[in-house]
Amino acid sequence: MPTTLGELEEAAKQAAGNWRRFESFVWWRARDIEDADGHAIIYTHHRDSGLLDVSNAAAIAKALEPFTEGDDPDVTFESHNHWAVGHIDGFSVRVFRSGKITEAFKVYHALAERIADYPVLDGSDYSEREYEATLENIGLAAWRLKRDFALPDGWESAVFDWLWQHRDHALENVDDQGGSPEECDLEAALAALGYPRVV
Question: What number of other Cβ atoms are within 10 A of residue 196's Cβ?
Fold first, then answer.
């Protein structure tokens, strides 16, 4: 994700045909597009991206969705793969149409400028992703404790709530992958919630 693009006109000039400057890269779709040099490829996230990049990518995709329609759309979502490094995802955007900057690129430019000012495009979406990732991490971190306690369905969210009220430091986002509580914090939560130990 770019940090800032600068003024719209200059950003458009820099972006158009940017894919030709990529090292060891071939854009196969370029053969099917008459004005391929008027397009830019923008990557938003990859296989190992953190929650923030994935959340922002979803917000960008939602904003650009209207420009993906029709026989000759200004935006096409792209996923490029490599056997060694996995995938990297984003979109190609027509920067210029008939010599004028497209509305699609204007929308993307505005979003990129927003990210430069404040990194989160959709706070609700990002918070939800943090929460879901933390629930998953709680389940993974409690692999041993799951043998020691009789746990009902949904125990992860109950543990999250208890930690939020009593040990909120245990829920701090780690490496933008959600909270990852220590086993001692999880054991304290399970005991406090009254889940019976397996004898």
Answer: 9
> Cβ of 72: how many Cβ atoms within 10 Å?
9
Residue 179 CA to residue 171 CA, distance in Å, equals 4
User: What pTM was estimated for this model as a whole?
Assistant: 0.90
Dump pLDDT digits (tens) for 24-61: 888 999 999 999 999 999 999 999 999 999 999 999 99
- Beta bridge partner(s), residue 76: 92
Buried b (16+ CB within 10 A) or exposed e, 50-60: ebbbbbbbbbb
Q: Given strand 86-94, what is the order of strands in its sheet? A: 39-46, 86-94, 75-82
Question: HSE of 176 in the Cβ direction (CA atoms, 13 Å)?
Answer: 12
Q: How many CA atoms, within 13 angstroms, populate the side-chain half-sphere of residue 21?
A: 9
- How far is the C-alpha of 67 from the C-alpha of 65, rounded, in Å? 5
What digits encode the pLDDT tens for the residues 163-197? 999 999 999 999 999 999 999 999 999 999 999 99
